[in-house]
Design goal:
Blueprint: H1 7-10, H2 12-15, E1 33-35, H3 37-43, E2 47-52, H4 62-75, E3 80-84, H5 88-100, E4 103-109, H6 115-123, E5 127-131, H7 135-147, E6 152-153, H8 159-165, H9 167-176, E7 182-186, H10 191-202, E8 208-214, H11 219-222, H12 244-254, E9 257-261, H13 263-277, H14 287-297, E10 306-311, H15 336-343
Parallel strand pairs: 2-10, 3-4, 3-6, 4-5, 7-8, 7-10, 8-9
Antiparallel strand pairs: 1-2
Helix pairs in contact: 4-5, 4-8, 5-6, 8-10, 9-10, 10-12, 13-14
Length: 345
């Protein structure tokens, strides 16, 4: 049986340079687009969809751009890729570097990375360095190393990353036979909203782009960098987005918006996505759903509006904030009656 076509081969006509080969693939892309009927009913939308990027190989949307960035780094003979990361980028970069036989260097902001993501990077053999300061300080240092020629930087400042991330828009348009009325997603470093909008424009579609930042890390909403961003959603704990201009272009050209939601709203949405649709996403992923609920409750989204919320990463990426409590798990007798009483059946 022939192996499945890789993401880059599937969209070769839109991505490949003349004669370019893509030897590295981990089976990225092709993520589920789920019609969220129960969640939509709770929010007040009849046509709510969830694009679950947590099924990508390293568990997040980052793989879409990383596969192209690492293939092109390999193509020019690079020996090392380098990134600053709050987690998902490091996991993805480490995975693809391992597949390519390259070294991966990861610069982490001290104490600001989810354990599930750090474990992935370590398992894939990444060389980790933790620096004082936040993500923005880490990225500034990585930029300097890239400019000095030490390695190929694979953060979203790398244009190949954004080029590959366009594929999420193409998959949504393919699945729905055109774009929905609106696409909602979290905004951290802002590369994803930038890339998704470019992807839709590339295929002649123009949905409203609805971006949501965490209230404690909302520089675009506030119109100024946030020196000490804070939010439970570690993936979007960024105070000075590298793709700020791209995000505002996506917002303005699409007639969309970029607003903020609180950590409480994010965690509530994360719980509802799991309980009502069976999809476990990380907190940052739920920001888009929290924002859509906020708009719907304020009467700013009509019930008939079709909305796709991009869930950017798997819940196992950041398990410390998982909804629900273990409660009392003291052993009980292994009898049907005891179990029936314990579960309230």
């Amino acid at each position: 049986m022939a192996p499945p076509t890789s993401l880059l081969e599937r969209y070769r006509d839109r991505l490949a340079r003349p004669g370019e080969s893509f030897p590295i693939s981990l089976g990225e892309g092709g993520t589920p687009l789920v019609h969220a009927r129960r969640l939509g009913a709770a929010i007040g939308l009849d046509h709510l969809y969830l694009k679950f990027e947590g099924t990508n190989p390293s568990g997040s949307f980052k793989d879409r751009g990383m596969v192209l960035a690492v293939n092109r780094a390999l193509g020019i003979g690079a020996q090392m890729v380098l990134c600053a990361s709050t987690g998902n980028t490091s996991a993805s970069a480490a995975a693809y570097a391992a597949a390519a036989g390259m070294t991966c260097g990861v610069v982490l902001p001290a104490g600001k990375v989810a354990r599930g993501k750090l474990a992935q990077a370590l398992a894939a053999g990444a060389r980790l360095v933790m620096v004082e300061g936040n993500f923005d300080a880490a990225l500034e240092a990585v930029r300097a190393l890239g400019e000095a020629g030490d390695a190929v930087v694979v953060n979203s400042i790398n244009p190949d990353r954004l080029e590959g991330q366009q594929t999420v828009a193409w998959e949504i348009a393919d699945a729905l036979d055109g774009a929905p009325d609106a696409v909602a997603l979290p905004v951290g470093n802002a590369g994803n909203i930038t890339a998704a909008w470019r992807g839709f424009v590339h295929v002649g579609q123009r949905p409203r782009m609805l971006g949501f930042q965490a209230a404690g890390a909302a520089p675009i909403v506030q119109g100024a960098a946030v020196p000490e961003p804070e939010t439970v959603a570690t993936a979007i704990r960024i105070g000075n987005p590298a793709s700020w201009e791209g995000a505002t272009t996506a917002r303005d050209d699409s007639g969309g918006l970029i607003e903020s939601v609180t950590d409480a709203q994010i965690l509530a949405a994360q719980g509802d996505i799991a309980r009502l649709e069976g999809i476990f996403c990380e907190p940052a992923s739920a920001a888009g759903v929290a924002g859509v609920r906020q708009l719907a409750e304020a009467g700013r989204l009509d019930r008939s509006t079709s909305v796709v919320c991009i869930l950017t990463g798997h819940g196992l990426k950041d398990p410390d904030t998982a909804p629900g409590e273990l409660g009392d798990l003291a052993p009980i007798p292994a009898t049907a009656d005891a179990i029936r009483r314990a579960i309230g059946a």
